[in-house]
Amino acid sequence: MTDKPIFVVQLHDARRLHYDVRLEVDGVLKSWAVPRGPSLDPVVKRLAVFTTDHDLEYASYEGVHADAQYGSGAVIVWDAGIYTNLTRDDRHQVVNPAQAIERGHFKVQLHGVKLNGAWAFTRTGDDWLLVKVRDAAADPAVDLTVTEPRSVLSGLTIQEMAAS
Ligand code: MN
Predict the structure, then answer these.
(1) What is the DSSP code (8-state) at residue 88?
(2) Distance, C-alpha 17 to centroid of its chain
(3) What is the pTM of this model?
(4) 92 C-alpha to center of ligand 1: Å?
(5) pLDDT in tens, 19-68
(6) PANTHER family this protein is in (predicted)?
(7) Which of 10, 83, 118, 129 is buried most deeply by CB count within 10 Å?
(8) Measuring CA to CA, how many Å separate 98 from each of 28, 60, 83, 116, 131?
């Protein structure tokens, strides 16, 4: 096992399909609902709605929620891995993840099955934007939400999970 903080992206077929992007910070999963999912194109800004913290154990959850505790509907683990905090302040000092979220700018390096490279969460008013930082993992030609629809745990699509 690793002591690096984890991240997970769960595809959730609730009233509206969305991607729940969750990063481990101080023992909980800080969470953003991203309706259109992450884009590898650095010019694309994806709306990310900050939502309730989840328990770390929830990171490996997939199945079909019967009740509304976490929002009803099917869930698959669309991506999972670890991340490195890249957030720096104006003087290039490390800003810890909790502080970064408080200040509204959180930059991370993802090491997932599908998502890699640097990503930035930036608060704008009530909501946040999730943007791919320009680097070798950026690729405007590839839409992973289309090319890589399956769970990294079970291999199921969200439709297959809903029918299971
Ligand atoms: Mn959700």
Answers:
(1) B
(2) 14
(3) 0.95
(4) 34
(5) 999 999 999 999 999 999 999 999 999 999 999 999 999 999 999 987 66
(6) DNA LIGASE D 3'-PHOSPHOESTERASE DOMAIN-CONTAINING PROTEIN, DNA LIGASE D, 3'-PHOSPHOESTERASE DOMAIN
(7) 10
(8) 11, 22, 14, 22, 19
| Per-domain boundaries in the chain | 6-163
Q: In angstroms, what is the span from residue 53 Cα to ligand 1's centroid?
A: 11
Q: What is the whole-number distance in angstroms between the Cα of residue 3 and the centre of ligand 1?
A: 26
Torsion of CA 148, 19, 16, 42, to 10 degrees: -80
Nearest to 76 by CA among 164, 150, 163, 21: 150
Worst-scoring range by mean pLDDT, 21-25, 44-48, 69-73, 136-140?
69-73
- Expressed in angstroms and rounded, the spacing between residue 113 Cα and the centre of ligand 1 is 20
Q: 154 CA to middle of ligand 1, Å?
A: 19
